[in-house]
């Protein structure tokens, strides 16, 4: 499952890079969705693996969702 989470995060970054390459420097909602899903999967798979990776993944998820909510306003 970790691999799936990381694939989603990388796909999100590639999507964002593609958008920036097309002279659109704004953060794309699809990037945030992919990143959030990837982080959520990493949180789920690391619940028993240690507290620090889980905390950092939760922080990344909260930050991505906060940016997404700000963009939707």
Explain how this protein is built:
This protein is mainly alpha-helical and 73 residues long. It has one domain. It contains three helices and no strands. It has helices spanning 2-21, 29-45, 51-72. Helix 1 packs antiparallel against helix 2 and helix 2 (29-45) packs antiparallel against helix 3. The termini are far apart.
Short description:
The protein is an all-alpha fold and 73 residues long.
Question: Any low-confidence stretches, pLDDT <50, length ≥5?
Answer: none
The largest pleated sheet is described as:
none
Mean pLDDT: 89
Write down the domain tally: 1
How large is the radius of gyration? 13 Å
Quickly count the helices: 3
The topology string of helices and strands comes to HHH
Share of β-strand residues: under 5%
User: Which structural class do the helices and strands define?
Assistant: mainly alpha
Give the end-to-end Cα distance, rounded to a whole number of Å: 33 Å
Q: Fraction of residues in helices?
A: over 70%
Identify the overall geometry. globular
Main attributes?
73 residues; globular; mainly alpha; single chain; 81% helix
Itemize the secondary structure elements and their pairings:
Layout: H1 2-21, H2 29-45, H3 51-72
Helix pairs in contact: 1-2, 2-3
């Amino acid at each position: 499952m970790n691999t799936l989470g990381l694939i989603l995060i990388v796909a999100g970054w590639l999507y964002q890079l593609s958008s920036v390459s097309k002279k659109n420097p704004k953060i794309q909602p699809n990037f945030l969705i992919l990143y959030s899903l990837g982080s959520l999967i990493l949180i789920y798979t690391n619940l028993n693996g240690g507290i620090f990776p889980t905390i950092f993944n939760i922080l990344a998820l909260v930050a991505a969702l906060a940016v997404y909510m700000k963009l939707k306003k």
